């Protein structure tokens, strides 16, 4: 007889009945997948969410000034458009509310299991099931599994000596401390990326002294952000086709940007001229302008959009430091020339731990193979969605599906529809497993890497798109329309179909 007081161990887990589809993550990707599965008549779904609420990145990133750098009418699902966006570029709180409203509109709460942090995902060859073990000691299983945990989910702290020695207050942009009072404080900000350029204009309003530590200047473009007029909201509500037309126009406009961002072309020179004009227009001081001028081709790193970042750096209580950081000390930051800058608080706007070769938890495929080991030399997948050796497993935002010029949700919708076709194939043909062939995966990735070699991302600068040895497992080297076209067909010749 078992001891009821015995703690949950791998051999004593609470097991739930098997489902058809198991989804890890209740952010944009996981919820979108659930909606499309539901619309396809597949409702035996379980969504495992590690937190107590939905939203993923937009739940966690609620720092001052947080917003999306893609227009709201494009950064939303085509099958669930919102006519009431308050601005052309909405803030994170409004995007979070959109996600929560989506859960309510599509009755997704019934599928979600909150506070279920997955610690292990393993394929059972004998039964053709994926089994997820969670931190709470429970086990969930399903015929197919979808990893929708998102690439921007785990905050990343920089590898700086002495980071644990600092005795002041530390805040990461993805885990904001809303109770901390910045008024009159000496504040240091490490980072000048997408989060930092939104945080800095807000902090400079309250901080007594704000010091910004820049490692590499970014290309910053003007942000065409406007309040949405009431007549437009009413038009979208009464005539949804008008909003779809605007979305299509935004999509095509962003598609054209690929000519500047992805490849080195005459359009690239035009984009760089716009970036330099924006810098020259907003920064009068020549020395500061020189410090903020990138020395790499536009598109090599993420392009930023802001109208208030440059003005914030020129406020009397703000100072830009471009000397490299040597270490953190008990009271602040010491730069390589030997000066120690003392702070009450340090804000780490240093982004996320983007895994190029690992996974957020062990993923064990057929025969017990480990995905982190298979991806040790760089992550690879077939069409970003399936991985050889991992039957019935589907990825969202998998390897080489990152956009540099368009909305990630455009790519994600293509992936989700592909996943739904895959799951329907398993069910309609009553398959034990649907497994992509290794030869198909290798041929696909050889083509992707050949195309990437000719892009701006691989032109020589360091970015989070690349691994330490320069392998690009992140970006898709083409137009969003090209990506969508390849995802329209699930070619069963590239898969091994195993009956029960």
TrEMBL record:
Species whose genome carries this gene: Marinobacter xestospongiae
Name of the protein this chain belongs to: NAD(P)/FAD-dependent oxidoreductase
Gene3D superfamilies: FAD/NAD(P)-binding domain
Lineage, broadest ranks: Bacteria, Pseudomonadati, Pseudomonadota, Gammaproteobacteria, Pseudomonadales
A GO molecular-function annotation: oxidoreductase activity
Keyword vocabulary terms for this entry: Oxidoreductase
EC number: 1.14.13.-
């Amino acid at each position: 007889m078992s001891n009821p007081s015995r703690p949950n161990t791998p051999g004593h887990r609470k097991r739930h009945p098997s489902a058809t589809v198991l989804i890890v993550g209740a952010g944009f990707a996981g919820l979108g997948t659930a909606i499309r599965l539901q619309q396809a008549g597949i409702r035996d779904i379980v969504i495992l969410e590690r937190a107590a609420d939905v939203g993923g990145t937009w739940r966690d990133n609620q720092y001052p000034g947080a917003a999306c750098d893609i227009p709201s009418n494009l950064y939303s699902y085509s099958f669930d458009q919102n006519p009431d966006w308050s601005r052309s570029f909405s803030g994170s709180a409004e995007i979070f509310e959109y996600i929560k409203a989506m859960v309510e509109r599509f009755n997704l709460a019934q599928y979600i299991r909150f506070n279920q942090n997955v610690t292990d995902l393993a394929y059972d060859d004998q039964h053709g099931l994926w089994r997820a073990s969670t931190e709470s000691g429970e086990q969930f299983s399903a015929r197919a599994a979808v990893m929708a945990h998102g690439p921007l989910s785990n905050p990343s702290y920089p590898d700086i000596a002495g980071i644990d020695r600092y005795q002041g207050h530390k805040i990461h942009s993805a885990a904001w401390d809303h109770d901390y009072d910045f008024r009159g404080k000496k504040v240091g900000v490490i980072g000048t990326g997408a989060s930092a350029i939104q945080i800095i204009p807000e902090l400079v309003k309250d901080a007594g002294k704000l010091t910004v530590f820049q490692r590499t200047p970014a290309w910053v473009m003007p942000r065409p952000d406007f309040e949405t007029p009431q007549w437009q909201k009413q038009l979208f509500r009464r005539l949804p086709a008008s909003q779809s037309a605007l979305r299509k126009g935004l999509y095509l406009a962003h598609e054209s940007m690929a000519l500047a961002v992805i490849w080195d072309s005459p359009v690239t020179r035009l984009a760089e001229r716009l970036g330099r004009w924006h810098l020259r227009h907003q920064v009068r001081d020549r020395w500061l302008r020189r410090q903020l001028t990138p020395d790499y081709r536009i598109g090599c790193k993420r392009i930023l959009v802001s109208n208030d970042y440059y003005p914030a750096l020129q406020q009397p209580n703000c100072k830009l430091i471009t000397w490299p950081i040597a270490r953190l000390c008990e009271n602040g930051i010491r730069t390589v020339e030997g000066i120690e800058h003392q702070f009450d608080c340090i804000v780490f706007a240093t982004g996320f731990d983007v895994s190029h070769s690992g996974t957020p938890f062990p993923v064990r495929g057929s025969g017990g193979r480990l995905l982190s080991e298979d991806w040790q030399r760089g992550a690879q997948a077939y069409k970003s969605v399936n991985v050889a050796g991992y039957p019935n497993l589907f990825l969202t935002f998998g390897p080489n599906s990152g956009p540099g010029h368009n909305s990630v949700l455009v790519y994600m919708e293509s992936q989700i529809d592909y996943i739904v076709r895959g799951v329907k194939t398993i069910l309609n043909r009553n398959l034990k497993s649907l497994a992509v062939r290794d030869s198909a995966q290798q041929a696909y990735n050889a083509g992707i890497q050949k195309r990437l070699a000719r892009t701006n991302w691989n032109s020589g600068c360091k970015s989070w798109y690349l691994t330490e040895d320069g392998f690009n497992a992140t970006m898709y080297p083409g137009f969003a329309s090209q990506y969508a076209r390849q995802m329209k067909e699930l070619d069963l010749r590239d898969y091994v179909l195993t009956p029960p």
